[in-house]
Every structure is written in structure tokens, then in C-alpha cells.
Amino acid sequence: MTYAILSCTGMDKAEGSLAREVAIRLAEKTGGEIICPVRLNRTPAHYKKVLAEDPLIVIDGCGTRCATKLVAELEAKSERKISISDALKARGDSLRASLRLDPAGMALAEAIVGDLIAALNAPAAPAEVGAGWEAPRDFLVVVHDKYEFRIPKDQYFINENDVWARPSGDRARVGISDYMQQRLTDINYFDPPRMGAVVEQFGELGSVESTKAAYEIVSPVSGRVVAVNQEAMETPELVNEDPYGRGWLVEVELADWREDKDLLLDAAKYAESVERKAAED
Description:
The protein is an alpha+beta fold. It has two domains: 4-121; 139-280, CATH 2.40.50.100. It has helices at 14-30, 37-42, 48-53, 66-73, 84-91, 103-121, 178-184, 230-234, 238-241, 257-261, 267-280, and strands at 4-7, 33-35, 56-60, 80-83, 139-144, 147-152, 157-158, 163-168, 171-176, 187-191, 198-199, 204-210, 214-218, 223-228, 250-254. The termini are far apart.
């Protein structure tokens, strides 16, 4: 399969230089077409055909995520997003502070491309909705003006920051509520917490960004991060489409669920909170 490849320009940061090199090598190995971000921004019609025919891979260098934001502004769909900064962090590697890649930087580019191609060629995993993690089917619905906000009736507990926890055994999945995803509008980036990180209740558990705002995920539970939703990282619009199911964000090994639960809202109490917030907006 060939791909359309959009990378940041890599002109002012070492991570950008690495992103550019990754894009070039990926195009060479897959026969893909590199998309110029400046031309895409000025004349998006030039790339209409390739974007319609080939899956899009977006490569950002640093946390500014210029390429991802450009895709979001143009309302284009991406097959996969990769952040060089996050890839370096995950590998425990660092770059020399230079705009020219040294041999070690070139080796990093090759390794990242290899990992990316392996991920692209891996068989798709089935949707992770198994025993203990079934998506909710029964909702309370809060109506305000033309908007409807859904709240699962059972087994979801939500803090006043609009972040839910769904416990199962000694773990809980965490995500943002339907009310919050509608307020944020089109979510285009999920910045996860570090695997293994220990978080206190109401501590930071990563963030999501949309075309409208950045939003810190305030943890409804205390514990240790044991999983992040890779599907939501690669396709963050899932958080808008299915906030209580496939759009979950983080899985936490619970430290003290009984104590944490006392400070969370059930469906009825959270519905009251949403009604109040919606009236104040």
C-alpha cells in the first residue's frame, strides 16, 4: 500500500529535522508521496486526488504539532499520526541539539521508520469491547437548547471536571464525557500520560486538544497507569464519536477505589451538574 505523507518542515528544531528525515525514508520504502505543508495550506486542491486515494500519515516533530493542526483545519482524515518527541521519549533516546542529523540521528530515523512500517503492516486488532468493558447501552439524556448530552446510567462515575471512570476488578478505564467532547468540538490530539506513572485522584492524566481548546484530563481515580488507548492516539476523533466506548483514553490500576468513589458523581448527580454547566455556558 502507498501512503500520503505529511511532515512538519523541520527548519528550526532538531526534532523537525528528524521528522523530515523519517518522512523521506518512509516515502522511499513505501513508494509514498510527500505532501508539502505550505502548498497543502495554500492550495489544498492540488492534493485532493492523493488524499482521496492514499491513507495519510502525519509526522510532527515537536509538541507544537503543526502538521496535525493543519490536517484538522482542512478537516482531512489521517490513517496514523506520529510525534517524534513522543517517539524519542518512548525509546528513551534524545537528539543532539543541532539542525543537522549526525549518524546517531540517522540511525534513529531508520529505527522509527522500521517501527512505523511494522505497525502499518500489523493486522488490525479487533475492537477491545470484551467482558468487563462493554460499551454502555442505557443513558440519561440532558437536553439543552439544540444539544443532547448522554450519560451512562450504570457503572460510570464522573468527576466535576467531566472525566469518567469505569471500574472493572482492580482497574478502571478513564475518558471524557459526552458533554465535554461536545464542548471541545473536533478533537485532533491525545497526549497520554507516561506508562507506569502514579497519579493521585484529581491529578493530571494527560490531555486532549481540539481545534477549539486544550483540555487537561483530571483523573477521577488514584493509581498507576497500566494502558493507554493506542487507537485513540492514532484516531483521536474516536473520542468525539464514541466517548464512553472506543474513545476511552487511559487504564489505571486502582489504588483505593472505595475512597475515590466517594468523591465522584453517579449518573443522576452528574446530570444535574451538566444541566447547571450548560445553562451557564
